[in-house]
Design goal:
Structural class: mainly alpha
Shape: elongated
Radius of gyration: 24 Å
Oligomer: single chain
């Protein structure tokens, strides 16, 4: 017969204070996720509006119309990509909040585990996106230094 170690038999339990903190955190996370969905809606609306605005600007004489009518489509695609990237952390935050609230209401540890998995996914996505953005900033900075060294003052 196999013996199980004390660590394998360990079951974590939440104190009342920790449970209240988690419940309040879930409420705020749900609120922020709803605001995030509204923000995504505004970004999509801006994508539609940018397409119309920049397409109309393409019909104007230079310099206002220098970018051409296709620039509106490019800007719409950029806004839609931003909305798609913004959707995932908002979705993960919403799923964390709804599962955490239900887990605390039902006193269900499996559901709490699922909610914490969504919270991990939320922070993992935010962390990766932060690294990507900082890397892009660094590459732009290096590019500016190389450009300055190569071409000198303008």
């Amino acid at each position: 017969m196999e013996e199980q170690s004390t660590i394998e038999n360990f079951e974590m339990q939440l104190h009342q204070t920790a449970s209240e903190f988690l419940k309040e955190t879930a409420k705020w996370a749900y609120f922020l996720s709803i605001l995030g969905y509204v923000g995504i809606g505004f970004i999509i609306f801006a994508a539609l509006f940018a397409s119309t605005l920049f397409s109309a600007m393409g019909n104007m004489p230079p310099p206002m119309g220098a970018m051409g009518p296709s620039f509106g489509i490019v800007m719409s695609v950029v806004y839609l990509i931003i909305a798609a990237l913004y959707f995932f952390p908002v979705y993960y935050l919403n799923r964390f909040a709804s599962h955490a609230k239900a887990a605390l209401k039902e006193n269900n540890s499996e559901r709490l585990t699922v909610s914490l998995q969504y919270l991990k996914s939320h922070y993992k996505f935010i962390g990766i996106m932060t690294l990507v953005v900082f890397s892009m900033y660094f590459l732009m900075f290096v590019g500016m230094i190389i450009s300055r060294a190569t071409f000198g003052t303008i």
